[in-house]
Amino acid sequence: MKALIRFWLYSVLDTWFRYRFRTMLNRADDRTKVYLVDIDNTLAHSWPSLQQYVYRNEQHRYASLPIFIGMRNFILDKIRQRHRVVFISARSYQSYFTTCNWLLSCGIRASELILVPGANLKLFYINYLISKGIPVVYIDDLSYNHEHGEVRLYDDLIREVSCMSIDYFGIREIDLINSNDEFTHQNNEKVLQDL
Question: 25: closest CA among 162, 117, 147, 125?
Answer without folding.
Answer: 125
